[in-house]
Amino acid sequence: MGAMAGDEAIVYQHISLVGNEGIWTKTLKAKTNLHMTVMNRCLKALEQRQLVKAVKNVKYPTRKTYMLFGLKPSVELTGGPWFNDNELDVGFIEGLLQAVYTFIEKKVLWPTSRTDKYPSLSDIRRFIHTSGLTEVKLEEEHVQSLLEVLVFDGKVESLPGAGGVYRALRRESYASGLTEVPCGLCEVFDFCAPKGPVNARDCTYYDEWLL
C-alpha cells in the first residue's frame, strides 16, 4: 500500500472501518475533522492509487459515497439484483414474476391439505436458477419478495407447509369442477380411456388427490 501522508491515512482509516457499506463524504468530513478541500485532495490521491473508490448509492443518488477499492458494494448500496446501473430494472422483474407465476400455475390443483404437492420457496428458487432466466444469483429473500408481489396481486396464495408452499389462484370466471381435479390439467388427458394405457382407474395422480 505504501506510505501515506498523515491526512490521507486518517481518511483511509475511516473509510476502511465502514467496510462495504461505504461512507458519505459529509459523514467522513465530520469524523476526520478535516477541511473539505483537504479531504477532497486526500480522496483524489487515494483514488489515483486505487486504494479507495467512489460508489453510487441507489437510495441517495446525490450523495458521494466512498469505500475501499477492493470491496464489493453491499446490497443496501446497489439495490441488489433488481437494479441495473443504479436504475430499477422493471422489465427484468416483470419477466421473473411471469415466469414464476407460470411455473406455479402449471402444477396440478391438489386439495390445499396436500401441501407436499405444491412448490416451496426452495423449489421455485431452483427453477429460476436451472431455467436460464437470469445469470444473476438470487437468494431466497429475493425469490420471497417476488412471491410476495404475486400474493399481493392475487395471483398465488401461500399455504402452510415446510417453509411455506404456493399455489396459483385461478380466476373465478374460468373455474369449474374439472379444474379442481388432476384431470383438468393432466398432460396426458387425451390418451386417457377406460381400457387405455392411461385410465382413471389406475391413475396415480387421481388416487393421491383423493387421499
Could you please describe the fold and organization of this structure?
- There is one protein chain.
- By secondary structure, the protein is α+β, with helices and mostly antiparallel strands.
- It folds into 3 domains: 6-77, Winged helix-like DNA-binding domain superfamily/Winged helix DNA-binding domain (Arc Repressor Mutant, subunit A, Orthogonal Bundle), CATH 1.10.10.10; 83-168, Orthogonal Bundle (Arc Repressor Mutant, subunit A); 173-210, no CATH class.
- 40% of the residues lie in helices and 10% in strands.
- It contains 8 helices and 7 strands.
- It has helices at residues 6-17, 25-32, 36-48, 75-78, 90-105, 121-131, 140-152, 204-210, and strands spanning 23-24, 52-55, 65-68, 83-84, 87-88, 156-159, 165-168.
- Strands 1-3-2 form a 3-stranded antiparallel β-sheet. The chain has a two-stranded antiparallel sheet with strand order 4-5. It has a two-stranded antiparallel sheet with strand order 6-7.
- The N and C termini lie far apart (68 Å).
